[in-house]
Specification:
Blueprint: E1 4-9, E2 12-17, E3 23-26, E4 33-41, E5 50-59, E6 63-64, E7 72-79, E8 83-85, E9 88-90, E10 95-99, E11 105-108, E12 113-120, E13 125-134, E14 138-144, E15 148-155, E16 158-160, E17 163-165, E18 170-174, E19 177-183, E20 189-198
Antiparallel strand pairs: 1-2, 2-18, 3-4, 4-5, 5-12, 6-11, 7-10, 7-12, 8-9, 8-11, 13-20, 14-19, 15-18, 15-20, 16-17, 16-19
InterPro entries: RmlC-like_jellyroll, RmlC_Cupin_sf, Uncharacterised_HutD/Ves
Protein name: HutD-family protein
Organism: Bdellovibrio bacteriovorus (strain ATCC 15356 / DSM 50701 / NCIMB 9529 / HD100)
Length: 199
């Protein structure tokens, strides 16, 4: 069973994280669940249990976000019509950043949405999230300066080295290198690049 595979490609460790293996966790406020893709536990004793956490959640109703004191958050809508956060629209594939200390009210624009979120400690890491698309039957080569990179697939099929990801799967790459991303399908590929580097 192909749960997780690791290969070394140009001295880079590439992990393919299948959506079926994500750990389902309850929201901090108890109003839903999130699929935890990956996280890094904090290396120091503090009120922050982890340095960062990448996850995806199905939001089925309007509700307030959980408070994460001392963290920053990056959030995007992967599927669905979008959200309104504190009266500001967040449309599909847009990325917003806000403080985990903020009291954030979340309203659905239409029906349920799936989001992608990164929570990170700004005292230990810097991070960014970018949305990209790749035309059918094409490829691109990216330079990866950060220590940890994630490629989360929103739509289509993505191939890196000898591994192919489907929608909601995620590649994790570590160490500096270049990586070639291939779209071998007849539809446009949509994905997110999440970059994390320690301070």
């Amino acid at each position: 069973m192909d749960i997780l595979r690791e290969v070394f490609f140009n001295e880079v460790m590439i992990q393919l994280l299948r959506s079926s293996t994500y750990q389902r966790m309850p929201w901090k406020n108890g109003l839903g669940v999130t699929d935890q893709i990956d996280l890094a536990l904090s290396e120091i004793k503090s009120s922050q249990p982890y340095s960062w956490r990448l996850s995806s959640a199905l939001v089925t109703a309007s509700n307030p976000f959980s408070i994460f004191e001392g963290y920053h958050r990056l959030l995007s809508v992967v599927q669905g019509d979008g959200l309104v956060l504190n009266q500001r629209p967040l449309l599909p594939f847009q990325v917003c950043e806000f403080s985990g200390d903020d009291h954030t009210d979340c309203q659905l624009i239409g029906s349920a949405v799936r989001d992608l979120g990164l929570i990170f400690n700004p005292k230990t890491h810097q991070a960014r999230m970018q949305f990209h698309s790749l035309p059918a039957m094409s490829e691109t080569v990216l330079s990866l300066p950060e220590e940890t990179q994630f490629f989360y697939l929103a739509k289509g099929r993505m191939r890196i080295a000898d591994q192919t990801a489907a929608a909601q799967d995620c590649f994790k790459l570590t160490h500096e290198t270049q990586v070639k991303i291939q779209n071998t399908e007849s539809e446009t590929l949509a994905y997110y690049q999440i970059s994390l580097s320690p301070l």
